[in-house]
Amino acid sequence: MNTKIYKEVLFLAKELMSCAHKKDQTGFDTYYEELKQICNDNDDTDKDHPVQWETLGDFTDDLELAVSIYDKALLKAAAMNSKDYLSSIGFSAALLKIELGEKASAIEYLEQAKIHSNKIIDKELKAEIHDLLKELKEA
Questions:
Q1: Cα radius of gyration (the chain)
Q2: pLDDT above 80 for 54
């Protein structure tokens, strides 16, 4: 990923978190629009990267819209064959599907995330995916 863009996305994520904690909706909306603009400007260019889309999804309040943003991020992660992003984004999408009451869809996301997580180093994420998938299947 382009270092300048990564730093911008990281800065915006920190500012979004700060605004959320301070309950500063105006600031949040401003930073969210900046992040959204970066995503749109870089969409389908050599600067496009799943991390910017995943971050946008993380800060999207509309759960259905957030899932659709995660789906876009998953496509971009698949295009670069990034097992780390495929795992983390799939897990995030599954969590939203659970919030939306869509258990079967959550299981589908988790099953894909689990397959991809076999190739990642992050043992904590692997365990979270495995445990949540097991919990949903047993429920």
A1: 15
A2: yes
**What span, in angstroms and rounded, lies between the C-alpha atoms of 25 and 19?**
7
DSSP structure class, residue 81? T
Q: Which token pair is 49? A: 């990267």
**pTM, two decimal places:** 0.94
Q: Which amino acid is at 34?
A: E
Q: Check if the beta carbon of residue 110 is closer than 8 Å to that of residue 94.
A: yes
CA distance 32 to 39: 11
CB 134 within 8 A of CB 106: no
Cα separation, 105 vs 135, in Å, equals: 14
Residues in the chain: 139
Averaged pLDDT of the chain: 96
Residue 98's φ and ψ, nearest 5 degrees, are -65, -45
Residue bearing tokens 């949540």: 132
